[in-house]
């Protein structure tokens, strides 16, 4: 019985977290036309994601986009990789590489989740100063705020 209760509790936490993510970052569709036609030379800091049990604001997770691809800090390590993003809103990160330092367990978990989610992104849009990335199924999985 306790296993069933844990499964229900985990499912409810995931559902509530997803609802909170949508409310925190808005309900825009991934089909929305990007406000900016160009992501090149932009820097972002993660502010929300689809991971229910970790607050992204507790970690330094960044996304830097350039002609060379993506790079940034993934909580503990630096990462880098190719990016194919187009003006129509498509977004595809290739194989990522990273440095290999160890850190505190929560930061390592956050890093693992981020590096799992980023390659799942297939669409992008910018709303105000927020970059929103969506999975193939249309659900928002990552939200970033522009870094000046």
What are the defining features of this structure?
single chain, 148 residues, alpha+beta, eight-stranded antiparallel sheet, two-stranded antiparallel ribbon, 2 helices, 25% helix, disordered N terminus
Describe the structure in your own words.
The chain is an alpha+beta fold. It contains two helices and ten strands; from the N terminus they run H-E-E-E-E-E-E-E-H-E-E-E. It has helices at 2-25, 105-117; strands at 42-49, 62-66, 69-73, 78-81, 83-85, 91-93, 97-98, 121-127, 130-135, 140-146. It is globular, with a radius of gyration of 16 Å.
Topology record:
Layout: H1 2-25, E1 42-49, E2 62-66, E3 69-73, E4 78-81, E5 83-85, E6 91-93, E7 97-98, H2 105-117, E8 121-127, E9 130-135, E10 140-146
Antiparallel strand pairs: 1-2, 1-10, 2-3, 3-4, 4-7, 5-6, 8-9, 9-10
Mean pLDDT: 83
* Percentage of residues in strands: 25-35%
Q: Give the number of helices.
A: 2
Describe the global form. Answer: globular
Report the helical percentage. 25-40%
Main sheet: strand order: 7-4-3-2-1-10-9-8
Low-confidence stretches: 3-36
């Amino acid at each position: 019985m306790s296993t069933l209760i844990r499964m229900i509790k985990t499912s409810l936490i995931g559902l509530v977290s997803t609802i909170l993510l949508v409310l925190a970052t808005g309900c825009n569709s991934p089909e929305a036309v990007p406000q900016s036609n160009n992501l090149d030379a932009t820097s972002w800091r993660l502010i929300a994601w689809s991971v229910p049990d970790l607050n992204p604001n507790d970690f330094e997770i960044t996304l830097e986009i350039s002609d060379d691809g993506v790079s940034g800090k993934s909580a503990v390590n630096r990462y880098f990789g190719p990016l194919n993003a187009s003006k129509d809103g498509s977004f595809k990160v290739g194989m990522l590489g990273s440095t290999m330092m160890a850190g505190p367990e929560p930061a390592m978990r956050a890093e693992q989740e981020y590096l799992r989610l980023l390659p799942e992104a297939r669409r992008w849009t910018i709303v105000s100063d927020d970059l929103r990335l969506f999975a193939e199924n249309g659900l928002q999985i990552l939200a970033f705020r522009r870094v000046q």
